[in-house]
Structure formats: structure tokens, C-alpha cells
Amino acid sequence: MLRLAALLLTLLAGSPHTQSDRQTIRFDLGEVAPPEGAGWNALLEPGRTGRLLIEARDSAERRTGVRWHQVDPWSDAEDEAALTSVGWPRFAIRDCFIARQPTRFRLEGLEPRADYDLSFLGPRRPSLEPIASGRFRSGDRRAVLTAAGPVLCEWRLEDVSADANGQLTLTVHGSPTEPVEVMLIELRGPFSAPQPARAPAEDLGAPPVVSAAAWAIADGTTGEILWSHRADTVRHMASTTKIMTAWIALEMAADRPELLERRIRISETADRTGGSTAGLRTGEELTVSDLMHALLLPSGNDAAIAVAEVFGCELGAPTPDEAVERFVAEMNRRATRLGMTRTRYDDPHGNSANASCAGDLVRLAIAARRNEAFRRIVATRQHVCRLRTPAGTFREVTWRNTNRLLDIEGYDGIKTGTTTGAGACLVSTGELDGQRLIVVVLGSTSREGRYVDSRNLYRHAWRQLEAAGGR
Q1: Which CATH class is domain 214-467?
Q2: Is 127 a catalytic residue?
Q3: Digit-coded pLDDT (tens) for 213-232
Q4: Is there a smaller number of Cβ atoms within 10 Å at the N or the C end of the chain?
Q5: Whole-model pTM?
Q6: Catalytic residue selected from 242, 289, 356, 444
Q7: How far apart are the first and last CA of the chain?
């Protein structure tokens, strides 16, 4: 008996949904709400058109999955630009549209084979009143709107079609001689909650999905960026800063090779520098050549300050403190000369607010790799150094390169970087079958993740270049 009653209710409703399933949602054609106290016609403004609500809510203020799209009757454009362009549809005002000719709409998210009541509402002071209304079943080919007055007798709803996902396209015909102002569209029927949007299907030709917030793959000879993601987005660069620090020092030493053999003494300022360290102690002595290894292999912030003190004085600074400031100024000058327009250095090590982007770091890597000493040091996996202590004895240290890609054949540089603000970063270079690449990853989610990200990007690039027959 209960089953028979349920069957009768279903047949009476004309769909699998009961009357209790039916809810009402409204689509407001206005761009903005009228000013408080304004009449319905206070918003007549030439050149302004209405905008449809994209997110629908039912009578209980619950979100629904139904979306309503208005289609430009002249261009068939469906994006919102069509709704805000001057003159659509020929005459429009801010809080409604004027129906003069067949106007097409699209509905998404309706239940397939369900019955819906559709009403067009317009201004009748002091309240909105129906202009035309009718019932249709999603999937039926024809439906008719009943006009609310004799002027609207030509209104009709036709060309209704639906697919299996509940998407309908319908055309409304209005009177060309008696235009109708429509402010709201009301839909009554069964509505389901929206499903989360899905990303597009996998593009097998696209670069791999990586954790890095920004990255770039570039030709290792020309610096041309071949593939990238947010390569111009400015981010903290962490210890990739030291590429610039080392390049300036080694370029200056290229003209004066004796600089690399000079013995320097570690200052208290360098010793006290926080962050990653090479373990240099106040008063210890080492050659500038060893100091460059302390800078680029264990990524010593202490070594970065020592480099800036030495070469800042070579730039004319009278004291070590002023030398660091002058050296950082030179870093910014060099960045400008290289066209690194999104790069700013505040220190020689990257432990503060230094910022750059993947594209700029590609430019720097190309320039730095032209220096033979730079190429040799960044490709070194470990370096042993004998430090002379203030007591005249010697202390031996071994510095290992933080770049784990060097453990794999074919990779030979360049520099890691990690801070809380920057995430895990890596500027690297590698060669396979004569194809040298530079890969920059900024903001990977972990230290190990930056190597996974980089290797996946290299593999993608080398495969694409091989398929294209090289470059």
C-alpha cells in the first residue's frame, strides 16, 4: 500500500521528485543593488548593462549547483564580457535587460527529466510582478511561456534541449514592437548542491606537475626560457643569492688572479652571522679560493659576509662594515646590467628579504657560468680546507656541496637555497646528449622536493627536445 501511494505521488508530480523537493531560486540581472530609497527606474544609465548572478541560492539560502548563462544574440558569446559590453542587447540598463528579439540562455546543473517552473519578473511599482511564466521538463524539446498581459502575448519559450548532465539551452521570443524589461528570473524545481569544480583532463604534452611555486626551464647556452610557470613572479630567493656574491668576486679575481691566493682573516661579524654556516671562526685564516668553496658548497652565510668584506674593500670601501654595504650595492648594479628587473639584494647571503624571480635567476646563471672558476667550484661535490687558527695551529674541515643533483651523472651546478619565507629553492644545470639546460625552482615544499621537481622538469624538457630533433 505504501509503495502504491509513493508511485501515485510520483506520477502526480510528473517527475521522480516530490513537491517537498521543489525549491525556488532567483537570478538577479542587476549589476548592483539599487541605492537605498531609489525607485526601480533610478538606475537608467546609457551604456551600462546588467550582470547575471553566477552563484545561485535557494529559498533557504543554501547554495545550489544551478548556473544561468545569458547569450549575446548577435555574437553568441557567453562570457561575462558580453554581459557588460555597451549596447547589449541593443538597449540595456543597469538592473535589467530589454527583450526585443529572440534571446538565448543556458542553464547548467538541473536534474535530468525533472519538471521546472520558469518565470520572468519585471518592475511594477511598488513590487516585482511576473511578466511570463511556464513549466517545462528538462529534456523536452518544446515549452511555452504564458504572458501576464495582452502586450506580452507573443512571449514564448522554445528550442529547449538538455543533455545527460542537466544542461539546457533555451530561446525566449519576445515582442519586437513592445520591448519587455526583465529584472529577475525565477526558477522553481528540484536543485542539488553544487559539485566541486574539476580541473581539465591531463595534458600529456604539458610539463610535469611539481610542488614548486614558480619555475623555469631554459636553454643552457642562450638562456632562452623554453617552459615556465610564474617565471616573472617575485619571490624570496634565499641562498641562491650567493650566485651573485660568488660571480662578482670571481669576476674581479679573473682580472687579478692573485686575489684568490690572498690569505684573509675571518672577522667577528662574519663569525656571528646567523643561518647556514661553513663553521668559520673569528681570527681563523684561509685563502680567498678556499673562502669561495665555503660560500658555494656548504652555503656559508659567514663566508658570504667575509667575501663582501674582502671585495667591498677592493671596490673602495674604507672599513669592513662599509665594505659589505658597498658590495651589496654592486650586487644590485650588476643585476640591473643583466636586466634582472625583478631582483633586489639587501645582503650577500639571502637570509633576509632578498627577492628575485625564476626568469631573472636564469639570466644570472647564464652570466655566472661564463666564468670558468665559478663553473668549477659549483660542480665540486666536496672540498677539504686547512684553516689556520689564531694560536698558529691548523684545523681541517670538509665542506660538502648542498646540491644533491651533483650525485647524478650529467648535473654540474649551481646553488641551493632554503628559508622559511622562500621555501626550498634550486638553480641547477645539467646536460644530456649535448642538450644543456638550466632549471630554476622556487618555493618547493621540501628540501628533497626541490630535487624531485627539478629532475621531473629536466626529464620533460629532454624528452620534448629529443622528440623535436634537438634545438
Answers
A1: alpha beta
A2: no
A3: 999 999 999 999 999 999 99
A4: N
A5: 0.64
A6: 242
A7: 77
